[in-house]
Amino acid sequence: MNEQDLQAINELLSTPRRIAIVPHRSPDGDAMGSTLALYHLLLRMDQDPVVISPNEFPDFLSWLPASEKVLIFEKDKDRIGQILLDAEVIFTLDFNALHRTGEMEHTLVKCPAVFIMIDHHQRPDDYAKYMYSNTAYGSTCEMMYNFITQLGQHELIDKTIASCIYTGIVTDSGSFRFPSTTSNTHRVVADLIDKGIENGEIHNLLFDNNSYESLLLLGRALQNMKVLPEYRTSYITLSQSELDQHNYVKGDTEGIVNYGLSIKGIIFAAIFIENSDENIVKISFRSQGAFDVNAFAREHFNGGGHINAAGGKSQLSLVQTVARFEEIITRIKI
Q1: What number of other Cβ atoms are within 10 A of residue 195's Cβ?
Q2: Secondary structure (3-state) at 274
Q3: Quick one: how many helices (H) and strands (E) in the chain?
Q4: What is the per-residue DSSP string for 8-76?
Q5: What is the 3-state secondary structure (H, E, C) of 89-129?
Q6: Measured between alpha carbons, how far is residue 108 from residues 3, 32, 119, 284 in Å?
Q7: Cα(286)–Cα(30) distance, rounded to whole angstroms?
Q8: Predicted confidence (pLDDT) at residue 122 exceeds the cutoff of 90
Q9: Each residue of 200-237: pLDDT tens digit?
Q10: Average pLDDT, the chain
């Protein structure tokens, strides 16, 4: 973000404003970590912010400080929609196209607020007056740390804000193993540790706090895995009935797609999850090396994301979606 924009944002925040902070639909650790980090920062700057999520966030993120204060748009669309319409400033974090908020998009496009985007995905739309968009970063939370620092507010980063930022960095970096993890990422985390975060405890809360049913669901997913060695591809399917059988709750399938990518010789992995409420199949893609799943998701499954991590969806049945996927990969070079 250039110096002129930073000065303008500082001026904007120099007096109390009605501020809304919005993550993408089905927010992950980076989305919730960045929104709540900003929420706590703005509180310390004597603002009165509110975080509005399009829908529920996973239970494994419910320990995040002030997560109980997050408003869920789907639960009260009229009242929360009015809060958005009344906002003077709207921050959109960890996404760069308003359709990523689902039904909330219809309200956001009517909002007269000043929009500020902070995001690390490719091909940003131009809805925001101020944009901090950089695909070189592995997480929006790392960008949030830099944003706070560039605003001249680094001294306001306390243990609470640092814990939120660390959550997004550790989840979006795959616990620091993805290629987007840089030496600067580790320098940021070192500073967060100096701020007092309990990094080991945060990791346990995020990754080692499984329910018995979620582990059974993981077992079913692994049983459903199919490997196509000739295409260096693997994929997993989970039907709605399988989700229901194991009392699925949001977050239970987080990270399952990575098991397919861990197989020797596999560089492309996918998971297909049936969602009967929305009448779609939700898809996550992961890759290693140069294979661009962002481009793959955009071209074939109405999605997008990063080079090595992306998502998509299909309105075909689960069986038809998988058949289409198999047909596509026989025609492309992986």
Answers
A1: 16
A2: strand
A3: 13, 12
A4: HHHHHTTS--EEEEE--SS--HHHHHHHHHHHHHHHHTT-EEEEEESSPPPGGGTTSTTGGG-EEGGG-
A5: EEEEECCCCHHHHHHHHHHHCCCCCEEEEEECCCCCCCCCC
A6: 27, 19, 17, 26
A7: 17
A8: no
A9: 999 999 998 889 999 999 999 999 999 999 999 999 99
A10: 96
Cβ(37)–Cβ(23) under 8 Å? no
Q: What is the pLDDT of residues 26-66, one digit of tens each?
A: 999 999 999 999 999 999 999 999 999 999 999 999 999 99
Burial of 190 (0-12, 13-18, 19+ CB in 10 A): exposed
Q: d(Cα 7, Cα 281) in Å, to the nearest integer? A: 44
What whole-number distance in Å separates Cα of residue 125 and Cα of residue 233? 31
Q: Which residue has the tokens 């919730």?
A: 32
Cα–Cα distance list, 187 to 164, 182, 269 (Å): 16, 9, 31
Element (H, E) at 228: strand 226-228
Collect all residues with Cβ–Cβ distance below 8 Å to 54 and sequence separation of at least 6.
22, 23, 24, 25, 26, 27, 72, 73, 74, 101, 102, 103, 104
* 3-state SS, residue 272: strand
Q: What is the pLDDT of residues 245-288, one digit of tens each?
A: 999 998 899 999 999 999 999 999 999 999 999 999 999 999 99
Taking the C-alpha atoms of residue 286 and residue 306, their distance in angstroms, rounded to an integer, is: 9
Q: Per residue in 24-33, pLDDT tens?
A: 999 999 999 9
Do the Cβ atoms of 273 and 238 come closer than 8 Å?
Answer: yes
| Cα–Cα distance measured from residue 163 to residue 182, given in angstroms and rounded to the nearest whole number | 19
Tokens 């989305």 -> residue: 31
Q: Is the pLDDT of residue 306 over 90?
A: no
For the entire predicted model, the pTM comes to 0.90
C-beta of residue 326 within 8 angstroms of C-beta of residue 268:
no
226 forms bridges with which residues in the sheet? Answer: 235
